[in-house]
Design a protein that fits this description.
Helices cover about 45% and strands about 15% of the residues. By secondary structure, the chain is α/β, with parallel strands linked by helices. It has one domain: 3-Layer(aba) Sandwich (Rossmann fold), CATH 3.40.50.720. Strands 3-2-1-4-5-6-7 form a 7-stranded parallel sheet, with helices on both faces. Strand 4, helix 4 and strand 5 form a beta-alpha-beta unit. Helix 1 packs across helix 9 and helix 3 runs parallel beside helix 4. The longest helix has 29 residues. The radius of gyration is 17 Å and the shape is globular.
């Protein structure tokens, strides 16, 4: 089916967009000409400052509350966008809970909570926005996976790794089922990026971890954000169900 006309401003919803890597994605998409909805579980001063930085008038950058563990929040944000602009074209599932914990110390309840938040949130987002995209005959779903979902993780816990592995599988399922309706679904699996979250999780072991990366450096979040922009574009119509690796050679396949 035909993609939206190029002159139409497209709308992108980014979960966890107020800070960290999510903020890099927000800036990259806005710079590329997209309207951005900066969602967060509790959008406060950071989200408001980012929206103001990009657009003081609030026409191409706005904030919204979205707890990815609550499907009704996805629905509410979608309805808000449709009411104001008529449609949404892009969903970036970025928000996730990250915890570093030894395997045998993980409480099963905590395991279930993190998998439900990370993988369950991605499922809910893809399903709810996927329905909207299907009605319109166009859409882009971009899921942030992780190297941890491919190799079992090193600095993170088994719950985080399992949730990201599930996201990779969900990406394939949604890509297969929604492709006939002009919708693509792809994942990006970054290795350790130079973000506050990575530095906080790794702590004083950062130097030793960098030495284990074949290219001897952390990933550039701005480059990964540009990968999101590429996959969000109408021109990316032939890219579907793929996992884009960006890990400095830590995982080669």
């Amino acid at each position: 089916m035909a993609a939206p006309l190029p002159e139409k401003i497209q709308t992108a919803v980014i979960t966890g967009g107020a800070r960290g890597f999510g903020a890099h994605v927000v800036r990259a998409l806005h710079r590329a000409g997209y309207r951005v909805i900066i969602t967060d579980i509790a959008p406060g001063a950071e989200a408001a400052a980012l929206a103001s930085e990009l657009d003081l008038a609030g026409e191409t950058a706005m904030t919204a509350t979205l707890d990815v563990s609550k499907p009704e929040d996805f629905q509410a944000v979608l309805e808000k966008c449709v009411s104001r602009w008529g449609s949404v074209e892009i969903l970036v599932n970025n928000a996730a809970r990250t915890e570093a914990q030894a395997l045998m110390e993980i409480d099963p309840a905590t395991f279930n909570e993190i998998v439900a938040t990370n993988a369950g949130g991605t499922f809910a987002g893809c399903q709810i926005f996927g329905r909207h995209f299907k009605e319109r005959g166009y859409g882009r779903l971009i899921n942030m996976a992780s190297l941890a979902g491919q190799n079992g993780g090193t600095a993170t816990g088994a719950h985080y790794a399992a949730s990201k592995g599930a996201i990779l599988t969900l990406t394939k399922v949604f890509a297969r089922d929604l492709a006939p309706f002009g919708i693509t679904c792809n994942a990006i699996a970054p290795g350790p990026m130079d973000t506050p979250m990575v530095r906080e999780v790794v702590g004083d072991k950062l130097g030793a971890m960098i030495e284990t990366i074949p290219v001897k450096r952390l990933g550039d979040p701005d480059f990964v954000a540009q990968m999101v922009v590429m996959l969000a574009s109408p021109e990316a119509a032939f890219v579907n169900g793929a996992c884009w690796d960006v890990n400095g050679g830590l995982y080669v396949r």
